[in-house]
Amino acid sequence: MFSLYTETPSFFNDICEEIRLFLPEEKRIIQLEHKNDMNAGEVLRHFFWQDETGWHNRAEYYTAGSRSAAIEEQPEFTDDHGNTVDITAPTLLAKKLKKHAVKQLIYRVMQEVCPKNMPWGSLTGIRPTKLFRELSKQHGTEWAHRIFTERYCVSEPKTQLAETICRVQEPFLKNSGTRDLDIYIGIPFCVSRCKYCSFISRDLKFNETIKDQYLPCLMHELDGMEEVFPKYRIRSVYIGGGTPTALNDHDLETVLKKVSGLFPERIEFTVEAGRPDTVTPEKLRILKDYGVERISINAQTTNDRTLELIGRNHTSEEFRRAFSLANKAGFKNINTDIILGLPCETVRDVKKTLTDIMEFAPSNVTVHTLAIKQSSAFAEERQNDLPGPGIVTEMVEFSQEFLFTAGYLPYYLYRQKYMSGNLENVGFAKPGAECIYNIDIMEETVSNLAFGAGGISKKLFPEQNLIKRAPNVKDLKNYIDRTDEMIRRKKELF
Ligand code: SF4
């Protein structure tokens, strides 16, 4: 157990995120009410106060009652133009500056007591590319680079990665505005459950009845927002899940007919066909007939033993078959996902997977780092066969080098909690094959309307630097019972 006392309790969770970077995942952090309420064990005390000399920010780390580290600083709070900001004011900027100062200090004291290689330094709970872009806008790329490495302690290669991604994204972001809108439609069904899956998706074998109730509600929800669509220019439509192609031919066609009819002018239309064992010539024909031009067929790994260990229920041969079928059906823009850090895998397995998938020359390759989430089967069966953070770091470095050399460029990035080695997920694409939806969603530069259980709609208010959300309920039964309420929530926002 780890104990924390802080004089900025509203940042308790943010401070915990910094501490967790250094702790074994299972360690609990408890909040101390009083500064002297210190039990034996590890304790961090954080003080934040003002006197005639200015603000003070101090952190002390105790192990079994004795002090192992202490850092005190006098932070200065200024805006983009160097003007002093009153951090007691109830503004977003004041809160942001104060939070950053607290997080940096906690990171520094933790690093002193438990030194650890942190590729992304103290960055937690923030999208690195979004931050890099914001900083570049203020004082240029070089300055952003320096702030990343010096203030946030981000490693040089990760800083360069963020910089490259921002550069690749630039033309896409330039072409978007407040009249643009992305559409997400969730099909939360799959053909079995992978052991690392944390989505709300259900196995269709046991959920046919609920699927038959869900799809009409989804259609109803789309109809319910019809009057809003003409106000916007639809940039992209993305049908995800689950695995939408897990639906039978009739259901898949019903969904696609509705969606393509509602959004005839979209610029991009993607459907996830993630599980290779759901891909058939007939389904590919249906996708083509309704104008889908971008699909995703996911290998994850081409090592059959690993596929078995992670409960994927398909073989690498089925991946090859599905990809060949899609190529034959005329799909030019195909993404494939791979996961690094899978049980028993080594850098050699990653090399084999990447070499194997290159046979099909996918236009996009999305490289994930395994993240074990609470709702996955992996979280219950403790894994002893996972490669350590050092090996996963090597895998990430190898894959990035491999894909760069093969002519792919990184174009979007996101990080999740509980990621192996505290690394990142990166989407790579051949120039010109970038997925607009992925960029818009990750960078939060375009509003989006989300349909189906668990979808989160977001509306941007750029003048106020604000994003408002309308989340749909996650539970399928709840969604079915409350579809009209989901429509109402979105209508109020849009
Ligand atoms: S294919 Fe995707 S949605 Fe389906 S179980 Fe696996 S991770 Fe979950």
Q: What is the rounded Rg?
A: 24 Å
Biggest β-sheet: count, sense, barrel?
A: 9 strands, mixed
Report the portion of residues in β strands.
15-25%
Low-confidence stretches: none
- The strand count comes to 18
Bound molecules: iron/sulfur cluster
Q: Based on CA inertia axes, which overall geometry fits? A: globular
What is the residue-mean pLDDT, rounded to a whole number? Answer: 94
Kindly name the structural category.
Answer: alpha/beta
Q: Treating each run of at least 4 consecutive H or I residues as one helix, how many helices?
A: 16
Percentage of residues assigned to helices: 25-40%
* Order of strands, widest sheet: 14-15-13-12-11-10-9-6-16
N- to C-terminal separation? Answer: 45 Å
